[in-house]
Specification:
The complex is a heterodimer of chains A (83) and B (226). The termini of chain A are far apart. Chain A has five helices and no strands. The longest helix of chain B has 30 residues. In chain B, 69% of the residues lie in helices and 0% in strands. Classes of the chains: A mainly alpha (83), B mainly alpha (226). Chains A and B meet through helix 2, helix 4 and helix 5 of A and helix 2, helix 3, helix 6, helix 7 and helix 9 of B.
């Protein structure tokens, strides 16, 4: 395991994991380097990375809003009261 | 010419009588089945789950049409209450969400009616000073709607929001919960882990699954329409 961590070569799963982290800006510099390195020759990682960043952008663009938890609880209470 | 009489089938002597009868009975049975399937309601209302399942979807739907978060909240609330009141009228033909949306649509229209009647009163009171040399004193500009120039772009984004929301509802509950907390509400990994009592690696696995599912869903629903 320790040997794996030191090399630049990462498995596809690990690369995807790094890619997920990167969408939230939580990947370290070394990790990003590893991902870049794998993207150079691995098509699966490349397409995953592309789709993943697309998804992040779509989510940002859509500006989805969610109701506050408190308001949801209040709504639930009202519904319970009624029925 | 003498026309030959068409041969009459004497059913009672037909050797295929049993087979024939069986076929007829079978058809009747199928018809009966079809009828019972269509008359039994496919969907049932479950008000206690409404908030968890549909509140966010309805909320986004309303925001894209009303453009005001507080009014949107009220409208969603009203929709749920109206749904409860008319729950008896629910025939079970449409899915729960479709039914709620149809109520919400009426609520939104009512809301605009209210606003419009207020607008009408305001127009009467408005004084038009034609003497002023100010540009833009036209009535048209005073009651202009506040759509901006990139309205089409905004519209597309709203549709996108609903498409994502739609895909989110198809996800398993846990995945959707974690994804929303992390991506849309922007919570920290640690906080989510504490709240849901899971480990960090566990969280990333859930996020990964959610993202893969979402990508697939959006590919089918969003990119195809574009």
């Amino acid at each position: 395991m320790s040997k794996k961590k030191n090399t630049l070569l990462v498995s596809c799963e690990e690369a995807k994991h790094i890619c997920d982290k990167m969408q939230y800006g939580e990947a370290t510099l070394l990790e990003r380097l590893k991902l870049r390195f794998r993207i150079m020759w691995c098509r699966a990682t490349k397409s995953y990375s592309k789709k993943n960043s697309d998804l992040t952008q779509l989510c940002k663009k859509a500006k989805i809003k969610t109701l506050d938890q408190e308001k949801k609880v209040a709504m639930k209470r009202k519904i319970d009261d009624f029925s | 010419m003498i026309l030959k009489k068409p041969k009459e089938h004497d059913i009672s002597f037909s050797p295929n009588l049993n087979l024939h009868l069986a076929k007829v009975l079978f058809k009747l049975f199928i018809l009966h089945l079809k009828e019972t399937i269509t008359t039994v309601p496919k969907h049932k209302l479950n008000p206690s789950k409404w908030v968890d399942l549909y509140a966010d979807y309805l909320y986004n739907y309303t925001i894209s049409r009303v453009n005001d978060t507080i009014i949107a909240e009220d409208l969603v609330q009203d929709t749920f209450l109206a749904g409860l009141k008319s729950a008896e009228n629910f025939k079970g033909e449409a899915a729960e969400r479709t039914w709620l949306i149809s109520i919400l649509k009426r609520k939104i229209i009512d809301h605009y009616r209210k606003i419009n009647s207020n607008k009408g009163k305001a127009e009467v009171k408005m004084d038009l000073n034609f003497d002023s040399e100010q540009e833009g004193s036209w009535l048209e500009q005073k009651v202009a709607d506040n759509y901006d120039l990139n309205a089409e772009d905004a519209l597309q984004n709203k549709e996108l929001g609903l498409a994502i929301q739609d895909c989110l509802t198809k996800l398993p509950k846990k995945q959707a919960e974690v994804f929303i907390k992390k991506t849309i509400q922007g919570m920290d990994t640690e906080d989510i882990c504490k709240e849901l009592n899971i480990t960090a690696s566990n969280l990333w696995v859930i996020i990964h699954r959610a993202r893969t599912n979402l990508m697939e869903c959006l590919e089918n629903n969003w990119y195809k329409n574009e």
